[in-house]
Amino acid sequence: MIEVKQLEKRYGDHVAIRDISFFVDKGEILAFLGPNGAGKTTTMRILAGAIPATRGTAIVAGFDIFDQPLEVKRRMGYLPEHLPLYPDLTVTEYLNFVGKIKGLSGADIKTGLGSALEKCGLADVSKRLIANLSRGYRQRVGLAQALIHNPEVLILDEPTVGLDPKQIIEIRTLIQNLRGEHTIILCTHILPEATAVCQKVVIINKGQIMAVDSQERLSSQMRSSERFSFSIGQNETLIPEKILALDGVLQITPDREHPTTFIVDTKLGSDARSAVAKIIVENGYSLLELKSLTVSLEEVFLHLTTEEAAPAIPNDAPLDEETA
Amino acid sequence: MKNIAAIVGKEMRLYFNAPIVYVLTAVFLMITDFLAYSQIVFYSNMATQMMRFQQDIPEMNVHQIVFRPTFMNMSIILLLMVPLLTMRLISEEKKGRTLELLLTSPVSIIEIVLGKFLSAFSVYLILLAMTLHLPLMLSVFTTVPIKPLISAYLGLAMMGGIFVAFGLFASTLSENQIVSAVTSFGILIGLWLMGGSNAGDGGVEAPITAVFNFMSLVSHLDNMVKGLIATSDIGYFLSLTALGLFLSHRVIESTRWRG
After folding, report:
1. Residue B150: per-residue pLDDT
2. Distance CA B36, CA B44 (A)
3. Stretch A142-153: mean pLDDT, rounded?
4. Res A316: pLDDT
5. CB-hemisphere CA count at 13 Å for A24?
6. Hey, how many other C-beta atoms are within 10 angstroms of the C-beta on A318?
């Protein structure tokens, strides 16, 4: 649905993005992640047709963004980072105007307006001037603007910025509901957002793509070892030697905050959990908890976007826990 | 075409939702009427004297004595008003980041430029049409020659085309409305004063002076206002308007490239 081919954008000598290539299947939601200034917005603006690329191109909904920009724009909804709102228009006036310039006419505008107002929860404020709306409502008007012509492709640049937690959840639910009928690129630096709604992740740093994959696979690629943790009863002291002696176990470290919880690293592909459980039980300890730990997207992100090559799993990093 | 209509519709809403147009119209009409009033008083004094001498000079008609100077004065007022009307056209879109919306919609830059131009030009025509009360009122008391009046209004309308086109161009240059307004003052006053340099040696026009004189608004406008419709004047008005629109188009296009 969206195929980006070796996009490059230069401002004089400054290279904003270089060799950006990825693709998004129909109905997928792709997270475009990167720290501030990584080139996310530049890439999105090129895809949306606001600025041209220096080199490379992209095919959106079957049309080349440079050869047939109007066809692409007809099929695309774009929510820029800075909301493109006219404060002196009412919500309805504004959405009517956007509907018209997106190529809708007559009855289509009415239905488009109705469904956009409803989807974004704007029905109550439709007669109000945009200038008088709160930040959260303006964000929704921005989203409604991108949705009004029911586009095949949606590009959302930081759609939840400036919203309160309840609104963030609402917007995320809304985006999730759009999955399937729309192909969506979600540009964000808020990682839980990407985790919550996206199937695929592109990580970009300093204008270059660092990784493109599903979130699970990115996490597993990052691992140099398997890891799990277990907890034993209070007031029990474990003798770790027996566990260390097990086949495949690389190291065992007590958790700093919970002295009765231990983290075990084993070789990739080996699973020592049942053997460890057996030892604990046979030695008379009480096994309270046993869970496998995975690398979170945060760590993948930090690993890929920080200068110095951090260890695959820093020992003090918070870990996403996945109950085994 | 539909896109142009959509943009014009939006611009008109913005013009009339805000107080700019109303204030501008009020001030413009006040000044124009004051200028017209002094001209009418002058004319009536003249007329009384003429009656005393029983003379009949063809130049002594209401058009030449009242409308011609009034319209020339009015065009200077308009020169000062139009930049205030056009300054927001693109500057506001740039500042409010809404230009991005237009550029990412299936609308061509030509349509944006024409939509913007037509909306400001319509407001200009409304402003101009408001002055029609002067000939209407005078027609109650005297015969107002219709044909030169039509020529004068046509000239003023076409002059407005140039004002709006260059105002639009100035507005594409900056996201600051004041800067846009001042820039268009500069361009328009420049166009106005260009012909002032005909202080040739012994009345002989140097070729370069002739060029400047032709470029200047004043002589072309004066021809139209006194009732002379010449293709060269119409060509001048239309081509300068087209130039302003063309430059606006180029600048918007280049802002895209500069990102």
Report:
1. 95
2. 12
3. 92
4. 46
5. 30
6. 9
C-alpha B97: how far from chain center? 29
Helices (H) and strands (E) in chain A, counts: 11, 15
- Residue B122 distance to chain A (closest CA, Å): 19
CB-CB contact of A180 with A156 (8 Å):
no
When mean pLDDT is compared across A179-188, B57-66, B196-205, the lowest value belongs to: B196-205
Cα–Cα distance between B255 and A306 in angstroms, integer?
Answer: 33
pTM more than 0.80: yes
Residues of A in contact with B97 (CB under 8 A): 80, 82-84
Residue A253 has pLDDT above 70, yes or no: yes
Copy the structure tokens of residue B72: 């020339």
State the average pLDDT for chain B. 90
CB contact under 8 A, A84 and B17: no
Q: What is the CA radius of gyration of chain A?
A: 24
Q: Check pLDDT > 60 for residue A317.
A: no
CA distance B11 to A203: 41
Q: What amino acid is encoded at B196 in this protein?
A: G
- What residues of chain B have any CB closer than 8 angstroms to a CB in chain A? 2-3, 5-7, 9-10, 13-14, 17-18, 96-108, 256-257, 259
Phi, psi of B108 (to 5 degrees): -85, 160
- Whether residue A78 and residue B14 make contact (CB cut-off 8 A), yes or no, is no
In the 3-class helix/strand/coil scheme, how is B17-78 assigned residue by residue? HCCHHHHHHHHHHHHHHHHHHHHHHHHHHHHHHHHHHCCCCCCCCHHHHHHHHHHHHHHHHH
- Those residues whose C-beta lies under 8 Å from the C-beta of residue A150, and which sit 6 or more positions away, are A112, A115
| Residue range B218-250, pLDDT digits in tens | 889 999 998 999 999 999 999 999 999 999 999
A85 touches chain B (CB under 8 A): yes
- Across the beta sheet with A14-24, the strand order is A14-24, A2-11, A55-60, A63-64
Beta bridge partners of A290: A230
Q: How does residue B259 score in pLDDT terms, banded at 50, 70 and 90? A: low
From chain A residues 199-238, the ones with a CB under 8 A of any chain B CB are none
Tell me which chain B residue has its CA closest to the CA of residue A151.
Answer: B105
pLDDT of residue A307: 53
| A80/B13 Cβ within 8 A | no
Which residues fall within 8 angstroms of residue A37, CB to CB, at 6 or more apart? none
Burial A19-52 (b: 16+ CB within 10 A, else e): ebebbbeeebbbbbbbeeebbbbbbbbbbbbbbe
